């Protein structure tokens, strides 16, 4: 009815034009998860939440409960589940109009993943286009000190021969890990045959070969986790 002569569109063969974005939000002083991450060694993960009336209930996982318990700005948990190698915290607080995650959700943008590390809230978003990303950054103005777009991944093309283009989140690397990778690359450590061995690169960095190997392995593991992650 009303569609005569129009081909059926079942979605097959089409390619979404959206993006996957990694957004780091700095200076969200009202976020208990961020507060917990400032004292925690490693990221706070497993962040989920729900709204009921005027109450915001949130959960997160932490491997160092002593650090979380000592952190300022984290409400007393309504319940705690000890899973052995980590602990699950749950707390309630009034709904906050300045909550970064709530602001993003109100723009009709589900949040795919949340973690907090060293006082920074890091979100993964799947968006229809870059215009929506600009809307999010604008909406967070005044709520956060700074919003950093750490990476963008274009939607992979299907059936047209285009490559799957992925930009790696270098924000996962420390400054020292970036320096180690740059120096090793510049000196030809990754060439075959190598132009420089591990001892030569370590000497250029003024560190021991074992320290170089540790930094290199950690950096490579982070980059591979980002590159090979399933969207």
From TrEMBL:
Signal peptide, first to last residue: none
Entry annotated with the keyword Cytoplasm: no
Domain HTH bat-type as annotated: residue spans: 173-224
Pfam family, one: DmsR_N
InterPro entries the record matches: DmsR-like_N, HTH_bacterioopsin, WH-like_DNA-bd_sf
Region of interest called Disordered, as start-end residue ranges on this chain: 1-21
Alphabetized UniProt keyword annotations: Transcription, Transcription regulation
Domain DmsR-like N-terminal as annotated: residue spans: 17-154
Name the UniProt record assigns to this protein: HTH bat-type domain-containing protein
Source species: Halorubrum xinjiangense
């Amino acid at each position: 009815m009303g569609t005569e002569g129009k081909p059926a569109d079942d979605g097959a063969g089409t390619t979404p034009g959206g993006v996957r974005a990694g957004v780091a939000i700095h200076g969200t002083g009202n976020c208990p998860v961020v507060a917990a991450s400032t004292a925690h060694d490693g990221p706070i993960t497993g962040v989920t939440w729900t709204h009921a009336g005027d109450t915001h209930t949130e959960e997160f996982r932490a491997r160092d409960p002593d650090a979380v318990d000592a952190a300022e700005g984290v409400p007393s948990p309504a319940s705690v589940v000890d899973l052995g190698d980590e602990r699950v915290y749950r707390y309630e607080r009034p709904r906050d109009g300045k909550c970064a995650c709530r602001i993003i959700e109100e723009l009709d943008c589900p949040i795919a993943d949340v973690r907090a590390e060293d006082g920074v809230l890091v979100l993964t978003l799947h968006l229809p286009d870059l215009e929506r990303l600009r809307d999010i950054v604008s909406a967070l103005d005044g709520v956060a000190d700074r919003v950093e777009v750490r990476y963008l991944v274009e939607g992979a093309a299907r059936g047209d021969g285009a490559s799957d283009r992925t930009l790696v989140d270098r924000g996962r690397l420390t400054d020292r890990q970036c320096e180690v990778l740059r120096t090793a690359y510049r000196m030809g450590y990754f060439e075959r045959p190598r132009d420089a061995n591990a001892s030569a690169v370590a000497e250029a960095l003024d560190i021991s070969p074992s320290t170089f190997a540790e930094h290199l392995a950690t950096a490579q593991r982070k980059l591979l986790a980002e590159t090979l992650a399933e969207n």
